[in-house]
Amino acid sequence: MGKDVYIELDTLRTLATQIEEINTELKAKDSLQDQLKTAIGQPMGHYELQSKVGSTDPVTEDLLIGQAKELELFQWFVRSHLETA
Known about the structure:
It contains 2 helices and no strands. Helix 1 runs antiparallel to helix 2 (58-84). It has one domain (2-84). The protein has helices at 2-53, 58-84. The model has no long low-confidence stretch (mean pLDDT 76).
């Protein structure tokens, strides 16, 4: 009987450790999602700038288009990773 209690306590300790690890991972995911939400707003800012700058400075507009493209690609990779994780 004493051995059964020991196994149960050991199992509970293992489960508690696993729960702590899961909570740590969830906090890290939440942080990453917050960073992603911040990054999602950036291409929209680039699009607004493109529309304002496009008629007067085509070189700057091209630079903004390239930056927005890279930001969108990064977002796509992060979203894909989060969906499969």
